[in-house]
Amino acid sequence: MFRIELTETERQALVETFKTTEDRRLRERCQAVLMAGNGRRRRQIAQDLVVHRASVHAWLKSYRRQGLEGLKIHWAPGQPARIPPRFAPIIIDWVKKGPMGCGLNRANWSFAELATHLYQTHGIEVSETASAGSSAIGTGFARIGRPTVFFEATLTFRRLPARASRPLKKRPKRASACF
């Protein structure tokens, strides 16, 4: 085991990052380093932060090697979107107008129909499934679904009799197979 000894500037940088960051996980990691710098044991830190002590050990090891930069979460770049970002306003406009607004004889968009329309108009080929469609378009782009139509006239309520007035039906006991 190694000890974390913080200088005053390191402590101030950790406290500043802890107070200003919106990333909960980075805040948790800064807190773990600060607690270790105050002499707390890793097991106690893990219990206080409700994480595994191996996580605390990895965070402290990363901080020891790379400093504050080692606590930050580095995401893999991932696959680029298949639909260029310049098409985002066009597709959002299609979704808002609906298929009839685009000259199609349909009431609602599906991912398959939207993918077909995108291929026919701009030559961009994407998957026709909902999960692949949302990842091809990108996160936070648009949700396609059925419009929510609510008719109060179709609601019918049937009042069930109270439980006490209904006879209780008990299941018959089965014979045990064990002797």
Roughly what fraction of the amino acids lie in strands?
Answer: under 5%
Unreliable runs, pLDDT <50, ≥5 residues? 131-142, 144-157
The count of β-strands is 0
Q: Can you summarize the main beta sheet?
A: none
The helix-strand sequence is HHHHHHH
Shape: flat
List keywords for this structure.
mainly alpha; single chain; 179 residues; 44% helix; 7 helices
Write the layout of secondary structure elements.
Layout: H1 8-20, H2 24-37, H3 42-49, H4 53-66, H5 88-97, H6 111-122, H7 130-137
Characterise this structure.
This protein is mainly alpha-helical and 179 residues long. It has two domains: 8-71; 77-157, no CATH class. Helices cover 44% and strands 0% of the residues. It is built from seven helices and no strands.
Write a brief caption for the model.
The protein is mostly helical. It is built from 7 helices and no strands.
